[in-house]
Amino acid sequence: MTGLRHLTVPLDDRSYEVVVGPGAASYLGSVLPASARRAAIVTQDSIPVEVHTDLPYERFVIGEGEQHKSLETIGELCRGFARMGLTRNDVVIGVGGGMVTDVAGFAAASYHRGVPVVHVSTTLLGMVDAAIGGKTGVNLPEGKNLVGAFWQPSGVICDLDALESLPDRERRCGLGEMAKYHFLTGDDLLALDLTDRVARCVEIKAEVVASDEREGGRRAILNYGHTLAHALEISTEHRLAHGEAVAIGLIFAAHLANVMGRIPVERVDEHFAVVGEEYGLATDIPAGLDADTLVSLMHRDKKALDGLTFVLDGPNGVEVVAGVDEAPVREALDRMLP
């Protein structure tokens, strides 16, 4: 099949293939573990993609919305796996967006202390970010993605045909993550066709993951814009979707870096130009939120090992900055709060 890109996430004996392009779902069999005898397919009713496998399988449908990205859902899935007799010689296949692959991956990592998982990503956000790299997890009321595991998939399918029916809001979510990669690399991703654009995002993430699989250092740069983004998601009860929040978080991170003297105002303007103009995303914090709530939520961020921690632009590029005082954070928020 022409027009497909075959990429590798290089992790030594755990390396795996990512297939990107229209019709990529037909390659599902090539990325399934050779030992798999049965499959548990985890999906949602709204997912417009049906996967085809020669393996006997059972289908598990999880709920819609972030409230179902929970430990309760993991428990329900694992009980279902137990009822079907799933073993380590079988495979979990997550079919859906970032929420589905996060949940399916964590359930696979937890059940029998680790069952192989393959992701069939159906959203732009999932293809360029969530399905790649092995970070899985669910939310708690106290914060987003606070419980999870690193569990690399055996393969990932990014079938661009699935994007044809993608709602505009889901498209914006993917663009929010894609804009992040612009600042990590300087690449003009919008100059590429869709297959090459998604493939380039996969290449960037794969290179970073290979250098720091368990987020001990460099991998945290993939969370550029995410510290405020996660706080915005929680404080709006997820009325603000992840990619939308990341777009706003990128602008906030630029303001904070400027307040701290790391970048000039011209670089802040570049963030506005890329996020707001080129990608067409909203850049304002929604009305009704306050600095105290947002700062409190940012203190709970999983990167906050040494006080408030952010991924910030600077003279050496985007990097993790720990121990940030609240004063510049509040000044940056004041620039954005209505």
From TrEMBL:
Its cofactor is NAD(+). InterPro entries: Dehydroquinate_synthase, DHQS/DOIS_N, DHQS_C. Residues 60-171 form the 3-dehydroquinate synthase N-terminal domain. One of its GO terms (biological process) is amino acid biosynthetic process. Keywords: Amino-acid biosynthesis, Aromatic amino acid biosynthesis, Lyase, NAD. One of its GO terms (molecular function) is 3-dehydroquinate synthase activity. Pfam families: DHQ_synthase (PF01761), DHQS_C (PF24621). Residues 194-304 form the 3-dehydroquinate synthase C-terminal domain. This is 3-dehydroquinate synthase. It comes from Ilumatobacter fluminis. The lineage of its organism: Bacteria, Bacillati, Actinomycetota, Acidimicrobiia, Acidimicrobiales.
